[in-house]
Design goal:
The complex is a heterodimer of chains A (445) and B (313).
Chain A lengths: L11 E9 L5 E6 L2 E7 L11 E4 L4 E4 L1 E6 L12 H10 L2 E6 L10 H14 L3 E4 L15 H6 L6 E2 L9 H10 L6 E4 L12 E2 L2 H6 L3 E2 L1 H18 L3 E3 L5 H12 L4 E5 L1 H5 L21 H13 L4 E2 L28 H10 L6 H15 L21 E11 L18 E11 L2 E5 L2 E2 L1
Parallel strand pairs in A: 1-4, 1-5, 6-7, 7-8, 9-10, 10-13, 11-12, 13-14, 14-15
Antiparallel strand pairs in A: 1-2, 2-3, 5-16, 16-17, 17-18, 18-19
Helix pairs in contact in A: 4-6, 6-7, 7-9
Chain B lengths: L12 H17 L14 E6 L4 H13 L3 E6 L11 H10 L4 E6 L4 H6 L5 E7 L5 H15 L6 E5 L6 H12 L3 E5 L15 E3 L2 H4 L5 E4 L5 H4 L6 H8 L3 H4 L7 E3 L12 H4 L6 H20 L13
Parallel strand pairs in B: 1-2, 1-3, 3-4, 5-6, 5-8, 6-7, 8-9
Helix pairs in contact in B: 1-5, 1-12, 2-12, 5-6, 5-12
Classes of the chains: A alpha/beta (445), B alpha/beta (313).
Chain lengths: 445, 313
């Protein structure tokens, strides 16, 4: 998980009395982009290395978070988000790498576009930006995009997705899965059977029946996941399932993994917390694709994330301009902000409930997504991510902090957060990217 | 009373009965030579129609005029709305003009809810997408009560495209609130997936339900449902779920046949039944004006104290 930015040789930081993974207090010396030395709290000396000292008493150190699913909107919708604003939000949320989804304008389906996004990320410098390449030209689901060209470009694309659209054609999906084996790529599928979701507005169930909105049935997601898992098993390829949202999907993925097939999955923070009852407000801030589901689904997703059936948390951070949300429900664009609230929601839904410990948070928010995304230099396990020689790519969290969500204060250009006014547990205090702070004291450096 | 009339689901029993009782007083007015009350003089009612609906718009317009309100008809066709103006901007425009009530018909479910957050005046839902059509349900209940003398304990059967029907939804909640036993009859494809949570019985067999129905309410079936494979052919639908004279003969003597209009004669209802003595189709139209007068009167006539703080922008 090293960065393209090499810190100046003089840049060294001593994290004093930090608690790696929430364990015993320790001193960590960051130098040369790595964890150079560790010691008992208060024992390491800053003067000999000239390191700046960060009093980290009370803070937990975790490996820097990796988001497999971010919409940065650039190029094309710079009014909603830019690489600069989106990666600021990412760093403030504790992220050190984001995978930028391909549904931009133009679509990221050529080496040229993915290199542009990658360069914008490198120039912004707030976190690593790894572009996701489109599976099909223009996300149209008809012809494969030049996947190899994107893989060998400077952006070194490994994750391919038509996210926002499903690769619905079974034969095209099979070919894509097979083709990316040549460069150890992965197809990240937006699982949505298009015929079953024509005009769909929200989860199909008792709420949609009452509210008179066209339903998005769970089976439309589950049918595609089952099909794709079978295809991935058949051709021996890697499949990643985006934003799993139903209890049935968790069961199918559990079954696919039991077969030894190379299937991974992500869940969003909003699907871990919110339910379809919120649609009764008709406020499109709650409109998202896949839609918010039922309390039973939320329960199953949390259990799936806890037992590892679901490998990773991914935000599906989806900024939208006000005119795309301040409308009637059916006219609004689906999606919600996620980067600056993800950790708090994981704490709220997984840690305080006892489903995950802090090492588990590190695994689901940093290591697992790094492995799925094919990042280099991923620590072999959570413990070694805090050991000497590991990349100094870290997130320092104040677990005791409480804060009230005010979207106006987010770094994102957009304000479509469903958590407005909610009190959140835990806050990112600092983020280090290969030894260099991108966030200190909760502010962008 | 609530400040807005958006759904019958949030209408309390006493409010619903107040509307029906007030409508009864309004109905007496239409027997007089001068059919006008000065109650809403100087108040402005805007008919904001994003869908064509001559009968509902005319009914609201007449209701407002009989209460002496100034009425503005704001139709989406040929206005700035069709040029891409947002619902919110339209709402702010009406707000700036000082609309006291906005009667809203919109193809999107929930659009009147959104509107209610953007304007200070009362919002009356005149049909939103496949969600609700509260005044239709109120006029249906009014019609039943006038004809049969009561609502409590009656059995009402609603037949047809329940899935896409705002009339069905509003009737289910209102009739349940008023003590009516509701049965829905439709092909399984046109019953909402989440219907199990509704306070109704569901049947796929019209013939089995008719002999025990005090009222049978037929819903319009739209042509496009056939092409979307909800049922095979018009003929088959009509054979299984249409109300013809033979079927109507199995109803109890006193039973009513209702239809919110516009009817597709020969499809969901035969002409013979539509024009029979049981049929309340024409009465429903007349009662619609009385019920809408009652709603406007209760929402604008001081029953609700305005609270400016409720407006969110």
């Amino acid at each position: 998980m090293t960065s393209g930015q090499v810190p100046g040789p003089a840049e060294a930081w001593l994290l004093r009395a930090v608690r790696p993974l929430g364990g015993e207090r320790a001193d960590l010396l960051l130098a040369g982009g790595r964890i150079a030395r560790t010691g008992a709290a208060g024992t390491l000396d800053a003067t000999e290395t000239g390191a700046q000292v960060l009093d980290a008493d009370g803070l937990y150190a975790l490996p820097g978070f990796v988001d497999l699913h971010t919409h940065l909107r650039e190029p094309g919708r710079e009014d909603a988000e830019t690489v600069e604003s989106g990666t600021r939000a990412a760093a403030l949320g504790g992220y050190t790498t984001v995978f930028a989804m391909a549904n931009t304008h133009p679509v990221a389906d050529t080496a040229g576009v993915v290199e542009q996004v990658w360069r914008l990320g490198r120039d912004a410098g707030h976190c690593e930006v790894r572009p996701v390449g489109a599976v099909t030209e223009g996300l149209a689901g008809k012809r494969l995009a030049e996947l190899g060209a994107m893989a060998t470009s400077a952006a070194a694309v490994r994750v391919f997705s038509d996210d926002g659209h499903c690769v619905a054609d079974a034969l095209l999906m099979r070919r894509a899965l097979e083709y990316v084996k040549a460069f150890d790529g992965v197809i990240a599928q937006h699982a949505e059977e298009p015929r079953l979701t024509e005009g769909a507005q929200m989860n199909e169930g008792t709420c949609s029946a009452r509210l008179g909105m066209a339903g998005w049935p769970a089976v439309a997601e589950e049918a595609i996941i089952a099909r794709d898992a079978l295809l991935a098993g058949h051709v021996g390829s890697r499949l990643h399932v985006c934003h799993v949202s139903t209890a049935g999907s968790v069961e199918i993925i559990r079954w696919a993994k039991s077969k030894g097939w190379r299937v991974t999955a992500e869940v969003t923070p909003h699907h871990l917390l919110l339910t379809d009852e919120l649609a009764a407000t008709y406020d499109p801030v709650y409109k998202v694709n896949p839609p918010l589901r039922t309390a039973e689904d939320v329960e199953a997703l949390r259990a799936g994330l806890a037992d590892g059936t679901i490998d990773a948390v991914a935000t599906d951070h989806a900024p939208h301009a006000p005119q795309d949300k301040e409308t009637e429900w059916s006219a609004a664009r689906p999606g919600m902000l996620g980067l600056q609230t993800a950790l708090s929601i994981v704490i709220d839904t997984m840690v305080t409930t006892g489903l995950l410990d802090w090492a588990g948070v590190a695994e689901r928010m940093a290591l697992a997504p790094a492995r799925i995304g094919g990042l280099p230099d991923v620590p072999v396990d959570v413990r070694s991510s805090m050991g000497v020689g590991a990349a100094a790519t870290l997130t320092l969290v104040d677990p005791e902090a409480r804060w009230v969500v005010d979207p106006a204060r987010f770094a994102s250009r957009s304000r479509n957060s469903p958590y407005r006014g909610m009190t959140m547990p835990g806050q990112v205090h600092a983020t280090f990217l290969a030894g260099r702070p991108t966030v200190l004291d909760g502010k962008i450096v | 009373m609530n400040r807005h009339l958006l759904s019958t689901a949030d209408l309390r029993r006493e409010d619903a009965l107040l509307v029906l009782d007030t409508a009864e007083q309004m109905a007496r007015l239409s027997d007089r030579a001068v059919k006008k009350l000065p109650t809403l003089r100087g108040r402005t009612v805007v008919n904001l129609f994003f869908e064509d609906s001559t009968r509902t718009r005319t009914s609201f317009e007449l209701a407002a005029k009989r209460l002496s309100a100034d009425v503005i008809n704001f139709s989406a066709k040929g206005s700035s709305v069709s040029k891409g103006e947002s619902l919110k901007d339209t709402a702010l425009t009406l707000e700036a003009m000082g609309a006291d009530a906005v009667v809203c018909r919109h193809p999107a479910s929930g659009a009147p809810h959104r509107l209610a957050g953007w304007v200070r005046g009362s919002v009356l839902n005149a049909g939103d997408g496949t969600h609700e059509h509260p005044t239709q349900a109120l006029l249906d209940a009014f019609t039943i009560r006038r004809r049969l003398g009561r609502l409590d304990g009656l059995a009402v059967t609603i037949v047809g495209d329940v899935l896409h029907s705002r009339v069905a939804r509003s009737n289910v909640w209102l009739l349940h609130t008023l003590g009516v036993k509701v049965t829905l009859v439709a092909p399984p494809t046109l019953v909402p997936h989440g219907v199990s949570a509704w306070p109704v019985d569901v049947s796929y067999d019209l013939d089995a339900v008719l002999p025990a129905s005090d009222v049978v309410m037929m819903l319009r079936v739209q042509q496009e449902r056939m092409s979307a494979a909800f049922f095979p052919t018009e003929r088959e639908y009509s054979r299984r779920y249409g109300l013809d004279a033979d079927r109507a003969a199995t109803l109890p003597e006193h039973a009513l046949v209702m239809h919110p209009g516009p009817m597709v004669r020969g499809m969901e209802i035969s002409s013979e039944v539509a024009d029979s003595a049981r049929s309340t189709v024409v009465e429903q139209v007349a009662n619609g004006v009385s019920v809408r007068m009652a709603c406007l009167y209760l929402l604008l006539g001081g029953a609700y104290e305005r609270d400016e703080r409720e407006v969110t922008r």
